[in-house]
Write a structure and sequence with these properties.
With 160 residues, this protein is of the alpha+beta class. It contains three helices and seven strands. 21% of the residues lie in helices and 41% in strands. The protein has a seven-stranded mixed beta sheet with strand order 1-2-3-4-5-7-6, sandwiched between helices. Helix 2 packs across helix 3. The protein is globular. The two termini are 16 Å apart.
Length: 160
């Protein structure tokens, strides 16, 4: 069983449109956007990432752009609370969300895009079993620097 200080849970419902905050935002806005999510469907799902010991919302994880005919979806993860980073919450949330996608949504493949400079996120995805499948070179600009966007994918039997 996971240590409760590091353990995260997911709470939420499926949504027809994922409203994920991007970049840094105030906690009130972050919580308001999470609480104001749209009605359930299996086209996309978003869940809040909460600490088990405090029940505190620290981030969001979701699946969207689902293509049921080929069984694929795109994963997004956002840890908005800085004290929630580097503690394993993201890795646990990714694993739980992927298991949900495979078991409940009937997916066979989950993919994501991540900036090549985001080493922490890449490490998280690799731990969960994602593999690099390709790159879109110099397509993301941050701080005046161009970065590659890395395409990573996960098949059901690869989830760790």
């Amino acid at each position: 069983m996971a240590d409760s200080r590091r353990s995260a849970g997911l709470r939420g419902t499926c949504a027809s449109t994922v409203r994920t905050p991007s970049g840094r935002c105030r906690k009130a806005k972050f919580v308001a956007e999470y609480q104001d999510r749209p009605v359930p469907s299996y086209d996309s799902c978003t869940f809040g990432i909460e600490t088990v010991d405090e029940g505190r919302l620290i981030g969001l994880v979701g699946l969207g752009d689902t293509q049921h005919d080929i069984g694929t979806s795109e994963l997004t993860v956002y840890i908005g609370e800085t004290d929630g980073r580097g503690r394993g919450f993201g890795t646990e949330a990714v694993r739980l969300m992927c298991r949900y996608g495979f078991d409940r949504m009937g997916l066979r493949r989950i993919q994501l895009w991540v900036a090549d400079g985001n080493a922490a996120a890449i490490a998280c995805y690799l731990k969960a079993g994602f593999v690099e499948e390709g790159r879109a070179r110099r397509t993301f600009r941050s701080g005046g620097v161009w970065h590659d966007m890395v395409l990573m994918g996960l098949l059901e039997d690869e989830l760790r």
